[in-house]
Design a protein that fits this description.
alpha+beta, 2 domains, ten-stranded mixed beta sheet, 23% strand, disordered N terminus
Length: 573
């Protein structure tokens, strides 16, 4: 199996999966051993979790005179409810498991009691807590902390130990008070509706309350935000899409509402076509902070495993196995859920082959996905990056084009149009100058000039027209560029490759680090044993930081340059 030996258990990773921020200083130093089956996976995850126990306990404030007594700080030395809740989650997972070295260790009980008291200290009178990095008196961020704590409560309640009454009493007080916030509190983003509803479902399981269900129904009345492609509104394929799936699965189980699984099925079916050959998920079209983030499929694991078992879906089972083989250590964030619900221990159905040879259009998501074995590409609209390519571990992370057309020449097509076997991307823009106002009219100096000049007649009107036709054969892509309109406008085409590889056939730019000019012939980008070849080079000038164009991305970037009118064919594959 392809194992990653070390887990950097960062606050960001924990936030993505559970909303509980564990300190970035928690670094698992044990390799993830080989394992067989789900029980073997759990055994390894518990062992990995055991390695975090002393580290997070060391970060707990032990001074009784401190107002943070019992709390846990993040990497910025700020004591947060999320970090403190993270301690309870880590400790509960080890404390309740017989094969943990910390099984029924009374020191963990004392630590969890102190943490629970600190949570009550920082909880506002309205039941909310703060996400100190941005949100205050936040109902959704309270939900991110409450939901896994409810799972911890279940695990602890199933275990007999001294101090159980005190610990569960403190947690119950915190959870019920948060419930009062959930039944009236608002949200910021589409997924927050389902996070809060999932937390309410968890609370209702532990402490049944009609008000909880009523509030869930108020959110559900709006309908699930899934489009015809099978994608949720935020299109956040690494963070919030899998989170929404887990929310809906949890609500479906606890509320006994099978209809909530339908959008999960639809999304997971779509997601099968969003997986790169190296096991990463395509994030280019995300509308949230995970756009272009390198990420695998670990956040889909819980809903995938549940739906594979529920529907006896062999493709979902195959993807579950793939996640276990590629990034098993990243499943540590979900250990509490795998432990508290025995349904996940059931044997998976027989696997079926995952799609790896397709051309798939997703018009609502403004992209097309193409894959042939070890090579895949994404073509995007409404995004300055209009093309990406993965060939094994070699990744062209972004292909962009900008012209110096009045500082407004960043290419971004409105739609991906398929014509036969090709995809056509278009961009048109008009700009010019402005004449004096008509006699009797005066400028409104209370308004910005950009707004007020709309009343003025345009003159010396200029045009920019760009078209890119993308076609593919045997894993090699041809991109035909044509830029017309106003003549002698400088432009640059930028190919941004992922860090860690090597380039040949290009020359370093003297103007910027990590920038290379592609003057002639063919070039190659190599990452380990995988290689992307591109050509033919073309350089008419060395200006790569085009005015009005986006900043150069991180990593090595290769540039072709020219002037309008411009026609050029580039092959990549």
């Amino acid at each position: 199996m392809n194992r990653r030996n070390f887990l950097h258990y960062t606050g960001a990773a924990s936030l993505i999966s559970t909303g509980i921020i564990s300190p970035v200083t928690l670094l698992a130093t044990k390799p993830f051993p080989e394992f067989e089956g789900f029980e073997g996976l759990l055994k390894n995850l518990i062992s990995l979790n055991d390695g975090l126990v002393p580290k997070i306990m060391d970060l707990q404030e032990s001074d009784p005179n401190s107002k943070y007594f019992g709390g846990v700080c993040d990497s910025w030395k700020i004591y947060t409810p999320g970090s403190t809740g993270g301690l309870i989650k880590i400790l509960a997972c080890s404390f309740t498991q017989e094969n943990s070295e910390y099984f029924l260790d009374e020191k963990l009980v004392d630590s969890m009691i102190l943490a629970a008291k600190q949570l009550l200290e920082v909880q506002h009178s309205d039941g909310t807590i703060d996400l100190l990095s941005t949100n205050f008196h936040s109902t959704p961020d309270t939900g991110f902390v409450v939901e896994p704590l409810c799972a911890c409560y279940k695990l602890l309640n199933q275990t007999q130990f001294d101090g159980k009454h005190e610990l569960l009493g403190l947690l119950e007080k915190f959870l019920k008070k948060a419930g009062e916030a959930f039944i009236v509190g608002g949200i910021h983003t589409p997924n927050h509706r389902w996070v809060v509803s999932m937390a309410l479902s968890r609370l209702n399981e532990l402490f049944p309350n009609k008000k909880y269900v009523k509030r869930i129904d108020e959110w559900l009345r709006e309908g699930i935000d899934i489009d015809a492609d099978g994608q949720y509104e935020e299109q956040s394929t690494y963070i919030y899409t899998p989170l929404t799936n887990r929310c809906l699965v949890t609500m479906s189980k606890l509320l006994k509402r099978s209809e909530l699984l339908e959008p999960v099925r639809k999304n997971l079916d779509m997601t099968l076509y969003y997986i790169h050959p190296n096991g990463e998920v395509a994030t280019e079209a995300s509308g949230r902070q995970d756009q272009f983030r390198v990420g695998f499929m670990e956040h889909y694991y819980v809903p995938l495993r549940y739906m594979a078992l529920k529907d006896k879906n062999g493709q979902f089972a195959n993807l579950v196995n793939q996640i276990e083989k590629t990034v098993p250590e990243k499943l540590l964030s979900y250990l509490v859920y795998l432990l508290e619900d025995p349904v996940y221990k059931s044997e998976l159905p027989k696997t079926k082959t995952l799609p790896d040879n397709y051309i798939k259009e997703f018009p609502h998501s403004n992209l097309a996905r193409i894959r042939h074995g070890n090579v895949d590409a994404t073509i995007l609209a409404k995004n300055p990056t209009f093309f990406t390519l993965t060939k094994g571990k070699a990744v062209l992370a972004s292909l962009r084009m900008a012209s110096a057309f009045f500082g407004r020449g960043q290419f971004k097509t409105e739609k991906v149009e398929r014509v036969g076997d090709s995809f056509i991307l278009k961009w048109n823009f008009t700009w010019g100058y402005f004449q004096p106002l008509l006699e009797g009219e005066k400028p409104n100096y209370e308004l910005p000039f950009d707004i007020d000049r709309r009343r003025r007649e345009k003159s010396e009107v200029q045009h920019a027209n760009a078209q890119i036709i993308i076609s593919e054969k045997d894993g090699v892509f041809e991109l035909d560029f044509e830029v017309s309109g106003t003549e002698n406008v400088p432009l640059a085409i930028e190919m941004a490759f992922r860090n860690g590889g090597s380039l040949t056939g290009v020359e370093k730019s003297s103007h910027e680090n990590g920038a290379f000019l592609f003057k002639e012939g063919k070039g190659k980008y190599r990452f380990e044993d995988d290689e992307i070849e591109f050509g033919i080079g073309h350089v008419e000038h060395e200006w790569i930081r085009i005015r009005g164009g986006l900043e150069k991305p991180d990593g090595d970037c290769v540039y072709l340059t020219g002037f309008t009118p411009f026609k050029k064919k580039i092959t990549i594959g």
